[in-house]
Amino acid sequence: MTTLTRILPADRIIRLQLVMIAVVLALFSLTLGARFFSLGNFQSIATQLPVLGMLALGMGLTMLTGGINLSIIASANACSLLMAAIIVAHPDQPLFLLLALLAGLLLAMAIGALNGLLIAVIGVSPILATLGTMTLIGGLNILLSNGTVISGFPPLIQFLGNGDLFGIPVAMLLFLLVALLLWVLLEKTTLGRSIYLMGSNEQATRFSGVNTHRVQITVYILSAVLSWVAALLMMAMFNSAKAGYGESWLLITILASVLGGINPDGGFGRIISLVLALIVLQMLESGLNLLGVSSYLTMALWGAVLILFIALQNRRS
User: Fold this and answer.
1) For residue 236, which phi and psi values (nearest 5 degrees)?
2) What is the phi/psi pair of residue 263, to 5°?
3) Rounded distance, CA 55 to CA 250, Å?
4) What pLDDT score was predicted for residue 94?
5) d(CA 189, CA 202)
6) Residue 249 vs residues 178, 185, 207: alpha-carbon distances, Å
């Protein structure tokens, strides 16, 4: 037992997650064998994880400040619809492709700024502010698109969701790059330290000279930018954009953040833990799909994993 403790990382949450990964691998090795451990299955996991991963990073970032972003899915769909409309209206024109990407990014930043202003300046609670913007944006998405699907994107967009480099999906490489950049931001910059301080004690952080309003607005803009990246990957994977894509992912992004060790009250959480949590969830989903288990039961099992994780974490704290 002492030897095992020395081998595992010192971080309690990461240790729990590694144990969970080992247990999941052991269970599926007994029930599925080579079907689960095939190259195709792991490539499928690596292809599906990035979209949810981008959204979970955006959700987790706001939770570090003690907030939440319920509008992240609606924001992603709004960005994808805007970009898709521009691209489809001007096919095979690289300039308009760049214009579409820029328009989507600016829309995401505007949504993030709106959330940040409502929370930081007006003083609306994060859950109510983002619930309001989620409802507003979701309604506009359906109204302006008439609920239709916009499809037919150039090969460059499709390559993001379906291409690979040396057998590794491009979407996965992009997710790992974004996760690394976010880790650097949180661990190595003044803004990152301010985010953790705000989550621990916003009033004390303000008294220490940190412009907490600016930090909050920046966090919600960054969260929305991550939803824009997720929108790009959704467009690439589905080769289409629609107002209702990914609606079931909202609670899963919160689940992944909490399972990743991010304190819902803010102040604590690590990017590597969030990535490990996403791996656990995606492996569970893939294995249960191969077993033919209902998606509803999969959701219930994810909740059970969360409850078990919290129980183990509290027992050792």
Assistant:
1) -70, -40
2) -70, 120
3) 8
4) 84
5) 18
6) 19, 25, 37
Half-sphere exposure (CA, 13 Å, Cβ side) for 309? 30
Stretches where the chain sits below pLDDT 50 are 1-5, 7
Please report the pLDDT score of residue 60 as a whole number.
94
Residue 9 is predicted with a pLDDT of 57
Q: How far apart are CA 114 and CA 84, in angstroms?
A: 23
Q: Which pTM value belongs to this model? A: 0.91
Handedness of CA 257, 15, 29, 166 (dihedral sign): positive
- For residue 250, give both structure tokens: 């909202």
Nearest to 244 by CA among 158, 146, 153: 146
Report pLDDT for 4.
46
Using an 8 Å Cβ cutoff, are 23 and 16 in contact? no
> Among 314, 304, 316, 309, which Cα is nearest to 274's?
309
SS3 150: strand
State pLDDT tens for residues 116-144. Answer: 999 999 999 999 999 999 999 999 999 98
DSSP state letters, 185-206? HHHHSHHHHHHHHHHH-HHHHH
Containing 241, the helix (H) or strand (E) segment is: strand 240-241
Closest CA to 199 of 262, 146, 133: 262
Helix (H) or strand (E) run with residue 20 in it: helix 12-31
Separation between Cα atoms, residue 263 and residue 197, nearest integer Å? 13
